[in-house]
Amino acid sequence: MKKTLTPLITLLIILAVFSGCAGTPAPSEKTDDKVPQILQEDKSAGPEIIRVPVLLSETKYQRNDYIDTKTVNTYEEGSDRLIKSATYDNSSVVLETSSAEYSSDRALFSWFDRENNLLKKKMITYDKTGNVTAAVLYDNTGKQISRSVYKYEADNYLKSKWEIYDSADVLLGYNEYVYENGNNIRTNSFSPAGTLEEYFLYKYSNDLMTDMSHYSKSGKKISGAVYTYNKDNLIASEIIYKGEKSVINEIIYEYSEKEGKRTEKSIIKTPDGTVVETVEKVFAFIEKEIKPGK
Q1: Which residues have a Cβ under 8 Å from the Cβ of 268 and sit 6 or more positions away?
Q2: pLDDT band per the 50, 70, 90 thresholds, residue 210
């Protein structure tokens, strides 16, 4: 079974720093942080009980260690299905809330401001194996903002293509994925006309991503990241850079476990060692049975 983690925080930072660097900005394919985690298995394997992490809370700290925001998540009992979430400021005042509704093949997420006014909605649909097949974002009037479509290789769960459409349902671009031994080793981003705009290369060691490189369509290196891991195969550090090796940020990860919960602290630093932000996440674990073909 392969479960390879691509550190989300690296992608967010790189997208924030480099948006617009390529001919056509790479559209994010992030469906939503709050979509229940779908873990896929080798379909030839027998049933297996695995521990699935669920994010209970995320606290962001400013440079002076004062709380910036804190998000608290609530799940169905014994499940990784999120049912509601609330984000608070440093005075414990609610900034935003969200809720989720589920059916057999879809999930509807809704976000509200502090006065409980609807901000937006997102509809996520799944196939029978649990793969996300589409994600449609709507504004508070029900008008489409964007739509993502996900396609998979016929004989396994590996994602083969992602398409992104605008509010008028016009194709903005798409990604195609190349795999080796079950690991995504290259992602190609294309314009609507099918012209290569940029691409990403990934390297692995023991199925753990160790290097990500982002190139323009001409082959010029735009950005990259290098990852290291601890003895438990949890990410220990990320070094994020632009160009060949001009470091932007370093992220150090620290872990602790208590009463069945894991705390993950990520400390984001500039090249001179100045702490930009600290993020503390608390996870609980549930047991989940993965059956063949699921």
Answers
A1: 9, 13, 249, 250, 251, 275, 276, 277, 278, 279
A2: very high
